[in-house]
Amino acid sequence: MGRVFIGIQNSVIGFNDPFHPQSCDRYLRTGEQQFFAAQDPTPSVESYLDMIRELGVDFYMHHAIPCEQETERMIDILTEAKLPFILGNEFYSINRVYAPGTGRGELSPGLVQKARTSPYFMGLLYDETEHVQLHSSQYGEGSGYQWADPHGKSAGRIEADICEAIRAASQKFGVPLYSEHVFPVMYHTFSRAGMRVCPKVLKEEFQPLQLAAAMGAAKQYGQPLGICVDLWGMDVGHWFTRLWGLPAHSPEEFKSGLQLAYYMAPSMMFVENMDALLRNTEKGFCYTEFGEIFLDFVHNFVQEHPLPYTHLDVACDIAVIRADDACIAKSGNFDGSGLFGSKDLLPDARTNSFIDVMYTLLHKTCSHEALTYHKSEFDMVPLGKYPRTEETLRTLPLAHGVPKEEETLCHPIFHPLNQALVFDQYVRPEDIGDARLLVVCGSRLGPSTVETVAERVRAGALAVIPAYFEAEFAGVLEESGRGGWAVVPDFTGPVFQAAVEPYLGKKDEWKIRFKSGILTVKNPSGDGKTLTFHWEEELSL
Known about the structure:
The chain is 28% helix and 17% strand. A hairpin with a 2-residue loop joins strand 18 (510-514) and strand 19 (517-522). Helix 9 packs parallel to helix 10. The protein has an eight-stranded parallel barrel. Strands 11, 13, 18, 19 and 20 form a five-stranded mixed sheet that branches. It is an alpha/beta fold.
C-alpha cells in the first residue's frame, strides 16, 4: 500500500559529475563556500548510469551546475536511459545564480521546459529553502530573500507573501515543487502554498520534532511528502570519511535513518549524497560500508517490509497547534534575525512557546533553547578539532576514519515522543481526528482555531491553552462537554507539566500512530543511534 520511491543524490566532492566534467572545476558544489577538489577520477557517463542502476534506486536526485547546455544533454541521456529524475537548485544557490530580485537559486524556465519534455521528469527541489529564507546572507552579503522580503511586515503578511511567491513559481514552471528543510519551520507555510515538503533526517535534527512538524503539515494540506536522509553533520568517527562532517553519522545510525525514513511511508526519499556510499577507482566503483548498507536496504529490507499505510494515514494522540512563525531558536536565527528572517519581528515568549512545548513533550531530551542542535545548549564543537585546512584535506578521504578514541558523539537520532503531530493555525477538525490532548501555543490564532479546538473538547479531549489566549477562548471555556480545558500561565512550569503528564508516554519509546496501527521506535542499546521498529495493528471494534 505504501510505495516509497527511493533515490540517490549526485556527488559534490567524491568525483566530478560526468554530466558536468569541466564545470565541476569552476563552480562550488557544497554550501561550505569553500572549493573542494574531487577526490576520485571522473567516471564515464556509462559507468555512472550502470552504478545508479546497480544501487537499485527508483530515481536520481540531480543538483544541476549552472551550465544549462550540459544539463539539457543530461536530460536527453536520462530520458534515453528511462531513469526518473528530480532537478535541484543547490549549486545555483551557492554560486549565486538567482531568480531576478531574489536570493533564490533557480533553473531557467527554458531548462525546466526542456525537462518537461521528458516523461521521466519528477519536478524541482529547492535545497534547504527555509534556511535561506531565514538567512538571506547565507551565500554572500547582499543576497535577496529566498521567497519574500520580511521587513516592515506583520508575521501574517510575510507568511502570505511567501505563499504567493511559491504559487507564482509553481504556475511559472507547471511542475511539482519540493521544499527541502534543514530546520523544522515553514513546513505548513510551504505546504499551504502547494509545495511538497521534504524534511531531513540525520543531519543535526531532533528527529521526532522534525517529523511531527513535517508529517503534520503534509497531512493537514494533503500533500505528498519527501524525506532526505542527509549524511552531513557534526560527528567524526571510525568510518569511511570524505570530509570532516561527511559522513558525520555512523554506519549504524545511517541504517537506522534509512529505516526510519522508510517507515514514515513518504512519497519519496533519497540519500544526500552518493559520496559516502562509494569510491570511483581505476577498477570502477566500489562500495563503502555505507554503500553496503544502502544496497541491503534497497534490495532486501524494503522488499521484506511492505508498508500497510502511507504518510497521509498518520494520526495523533497529541495535537500541537501554533502559527508557523519560522525562527530556529529563542535567541533568533544565526544572524540574530527573527520571524521569517525579519530584523523587525524578534522572537518573544509567545513565539518561543512552541520550543517550550516540544521540550516537555519530548521528555526534556531535546533543547530548551532551539528547534535543532544549532544555537542550542548542546556541544557542537567536535568538528572544531578537525579544521578543513589545506594540510588536512590532503589526507582525505580516510578509508577507516579516525581511531575509536578520537571519534565524537554529540548527535543522537532517538528521542521519546508519544503520537504527536504539529498543525498550524488553520487546522481543521478532520486534521486533528480523535486526538486526546490539544496544546495551543505560539503567537497567533486562525479564524476558526477556537471553534476547531472547542469541537474536539466537546468530544472528550483536553485542551491546554496559555493565559494570553484566554480572552479569545472565553466564549467556549464553560462548555467543555465530555472533555476539559486547562489554562496555563506558561509552558515551562509545573501547571503545564501536570496537565500533559498523563499523555506523555514512556521515556524509552517514540510512537507514531497511523490509522491502522502504531509504530513504536526504541533504542534498546541506549547508544542514541541504533533503532528498533515494532508495528502493531489496531484491531477494529
